[in-house]
Design goal:
two-stranded antiparallel ribbon; 7 strands; alpha/beta; 16 helices
């Protein structure tokens, strides 16, 4: 895809495929027979839709970064480098049926579930026609299966467990999914929610998005051992680890988990191994670069989820010109959404509406 020197991480600007990593991308899928079967059954159009999802996610974040640089907004929370950990799992679910509760870094879940990108961008602008009527930049639309998150990462775990319980009580073959940051696994709500889901055997999927850092605290500073492979058995649930930079691995692992949930096998705990290619938000990029050695950014930079998937698709027989056409179409879509969102600034919320929808009322 096109690179943006002003907005992309420096490791992505002159990105070139590493032959060994290109082979490893394919090998990751082929090593597990069940995941290989699921990925192999994807149609050409389905594979391109995964590609569109990755592009939408990256271009949405680039648009936010552009707005920060030009003073439209003060800061933004980006998922750069982690797109596959969101796009793959959501596309493995059933839109219009299942429910997701994204963290702010999983904003791509919104458009993958059918929300307009313009609405996602309007949330940052706090316009009157934004999903929360200007009250919060955390985006959601429950009518489209997206539960609006809150800032307290991990708190959506018990909520999703509760939603999944209603699916079980109603004998509905539906799934509820949420992500948990590696840092928020240490919160009481995350633990209690996963434990409740395990005991009640509800159809919920919890994805530990291990991007190696909690705000500015490195994984080894808050978690022992240095991975989460033993967490699923410790709760007594089925679990799996997937490559969080490999959209096909993310898709296949989640598809397996969702199928298990729908057939009454209880919850699943997945671990996405990935890396945050920037700051906690755009305001602390320098601090993020000081948190880890430069070599770690270089290592993960070579595993750009979009570039890696492009190479896979080319090897799979999809012409470069087809990918370029998909990118051009997606870029135009995001640019049009950004223009629509900016036009909405003429419709800012009136001050007297500030308390509306905040407190429950009998009136």
């Amino acid at each position: 895809m096109k690179r943006f020197p002003a907005f992309d991480p420096p490791e992505y600007v002159d990105w070139k495929p590493d032959p060994a990593l290109v082979r490893a991308f394919r090998a990751t899928i082929e090593v597990d027979p069940e995941r290989a079967r699921i990925a192999g059954a994807l149609s050409r159009d389905a594979k391109l839709e995964l590609y569109r999802g990755l592009l939408r996610a990256r271009l949405h974040d680039i648009q936010l970064a552009r707005w920060v640089r030009t003073g439209v907004i003060s800061k933004a929370w980006l998922g750069t480098g982690e797109e596959a950990a969101t796009v793959g799992p959501v596309q493995a679910l059933e839109r219009g049926k299942d429910v997701v509760a994204p963290m702010i870094r999983n904003a791509a879940a919104c458009c993958e579930m059918g929300m307009p990108i313009a609405d996602m961008l309007r949330a940052y602008l706090a316009t009157d026609d934004s999903p929360s009527k200007g009250r919060d930049l955390h985006v959601g639309s429950f009518s489209q299966g997206v539960l609006q998150p809150i800032s307290h990462v991990g708190d959506m775990v018990p909520v999703i467990a509760g939603i999944a319980l209603t699916f079980k009580m109603g004998n509905e073959p539906r799934v509820a999914l949420t992500w948990v940051g590696d840092g928020s696994t240490k919160t009481a709500t995350a633990h209690e929610g996963i434990n409740f889901a395990a005991v009640q055997r509800v159809p919920a999927i919890f994805i530990i998005q291990n991007n190696q850092v909690a705000l500015g605290t490195r994984l080894e500073q808050h978690h022992l051992p240095t991975d989460f492979r033993d967490w699923a058995p410790s709760y007594g649930v089925w679990g799996a680890v997937f490559d969080g930079n490999n959209v096909l691995d993310a898709y296949a692992a989640t598809r397996i988990a969702a199928d298990r949930c729908r057939t009454g096998n209880g919850p699943a705990l997945l671990v996405a191994e990935t890396f945050r290619m920037g700051g906690h938000a755009t305001h602390d990029e320098r601090e993020a670069r000081e948190t880890f050695p430069a070599e770690l950014f270089k290592t993960w930079g070579k595993r750009d989820p979009i570039g890696s998937y492009e190479e896979y698709l080319k090897e799979d027989g999809i012409a470069a010109k087809v990918l370029e056409a998909v990118e051009a179409e997606t870029a135009e879509h995001v640019e049009r959404a950004a223009a629509e969102a900016l036009a909405s600034r003429e419709k800012m919320p009136a001050g007297e509406t500030a308390l509306g929808g905040v407190y429950a009322s009998r009136n």
